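Reading a protein record of the kind used here takes little practice once its layout is understood. Each number in the token line that follows is a code from a learned vocabulary of backbone shapes. One such record is shown here in full, so that the layout can be seen directly:
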Amino acid sequence: MASAIKRTALKLGMIPADGIGKEVLPAAQRVLEALGSSIPKTTFIPLQAGWEEFQRNGKALPEETIKILKEECDAAMFGSVSSPSHKVEGYSSPIVALRKHLDLYANVRPVSSVKIPNQSSYHQCDMVIVRENTECLYIKKEEIKTNSDGSKIALATRQITSTASSRIGKMAFEIALRRGKEREQAKSQGKSVWWNGQPKVTIVHKSNVLSITDGLFRESVRSVKESTNRYDSIKMEEQLVDSMVYRMFREPEIFDVAVAPNLYGDIISDGAAALVGSLGLVPSINAGDNFVMGEPVHGSAPDIEGQNIANPIASIRSAALLLSSLGYVEPASRINAAVDAVLEEGQYLTPDLGGKSSTTDVTEAILKRL
């Protein structure tokens, strides 16, 4: 991830994009602003991208947005994007393009449970899904051919490289190493830690069917641990992706850090949101070696756009995750503690969690807790 550097000021690119992104990203900005002097003086730079931008100007990701992010910004926040389910000439997802332009090769998605009063079920869950962000089927190389009998065949190219697989594997092991140290520190301070085993990385693949592509992913990630003694304290195991989904819902408490190719990582991290109550709670960062971009896991939710009922928590937690990755761990912890307190109290919950509160209500409640 981007290295922690002492800064006197921060410049954050703010890309609300489409749908409820325009409602939840301002909520995250308000929370960051409320931190005051505990973080460097922060300038928020509004930037354009998305399906609506494509409809206005013919480009989903303007060159100016890329230029400002690369030349002026220390990090960024992204809201949500609406992508049509059918092919539109000239359009491609701006979030996928941003990941490539900024070499944000990892999507890091923590999934952590909080006891919410009105939830009928509770799963003990505290895992991180580390998703390779640049290849697999997301290289978007597709074609359609017509056979001699007039029938059609659609083909998609899936790309897995040892380079991308090794570096995502290294990030997963580094995250597991850090989480292990944090748990040990917490225990030494007398704090409750539910995970008492050694740190663990689970490699998710389907190499029993895709023996070449997933086989390369599996072997590349395994070699990260096997080539050094740095990760001797970390247990390594594997799960076929279908088994991973089953066990994740049956016994989520057995997972610590999971690492997966792009498509599998996308699916299991969205599915894991069901374990904690809602997609509206789950944050992520797109991370590279030199840049980080926060992004809530949920989509643009056009059915609730403009109604002030979108859950802002995923966006607010993404801002906290971004701060933590930049080295501002204490203010990030303050944000997460405020969010947890509001959820545990249960008075201010948006409709996705069974409540009747607005986006504004929840944001105000979190600000008060700060």
